[in-house]
């Protein structure tokens, strides 16, 4: 679709402008005692997993408008993500979804993954919809269900997911439960929680010792009165109950408007219970929009908390799973993912620029203005040349979206797969 040589040619035409902008910024940061190449190395090393379900245009219940050339199977999804990774050198893994991505020919898939320099990051279970041949229904819940046969079906599905993941060398099981209720009185809160905890424990016991279970929370949707795991506190309590290999997953869109997500991140880091992220953007709730598209300052404050926690030796948190969880109806999905990764790296870079010694002094001395200005200074720095340089040094494109357009990739995919091909996804 696009060769490394073509990427280099496209870079060549942008190199002059890039060098000018990069030199200016590097010199300025250097004057302030910031080790520029160290920052570039950290940005180049930062990898974000791409969800298999974001490669098509996610519909809404009102309709769906296919992008054209959407991947029709797991092999084509791997090709698409390989393409993203070739362009930005920052998306080297995939979040799988079962049953949409059940691996069939495992050796062939492993080879395809290796050819594209990709790995499988995590496996997502799906107990939010019934599959055609399913003996019992998830209509009234899965791991929390009142009927043990339904709970066992959902437990077994999660164990199957672990086994599919093992075949492809994944090490993470992501559990998001749609379980909840729509009307007061429908569900007994304490018993639903208890059943969920016990079901999760059965899954946890079947998990290899080097695996992590990520438990995602969500305040509403698909249920609108209560969710069994609505908030980080519930996820955290379940992790405490299960053991060291269970961690909380923060999906940026799973908070009520104006929730202080950065503080949640700080709390979970403090407890050593932050397992990973689902990056996306949102205005109202679980909007699954492009990461950083709506509230870039809040996104920066979240990364500021992350960098602070990751660089503080007192924080004992395992390494995090960085994942995108997006799915919407309007953009070319591959362009959207390129934008998301770009926004994640840009925001991470800004957080790396924060003068932590000065910030800590201002905080200890209660100098509110200086503390705030230190954050704003980093946030307002245009770090795009550093991100471009990180990608260039890793063999990627200086401007991945421009390269994607210049290579007419969507047109090529439509020719190959047809205008109406539809990817499985949300
Ligand atoms: C659903 O709202 C959650 O964000 C899930 O993480 C995710 O979208 C789903 O598990 C994908 O199947
Ligand atoms: Zn999610
Ligand atoms: Zn979600």
UniProtKB/TrEMBL annotation:
It holds the Pfam family AP_endonuc_2. One of its GO terms (molecular function) is isomerase activity. The keyword Manganese applies. InterPro entries: L-rhamnose_isomerase, Xyl_isomerase-like_sf, Xyl_isomerase-like_TIM-brl. Keywords: Isomerase, Manganese, Metal-binding. Residues 103-287 form the Xylose isomerase-like TIM barrel domain. This is Sugar isomerase.
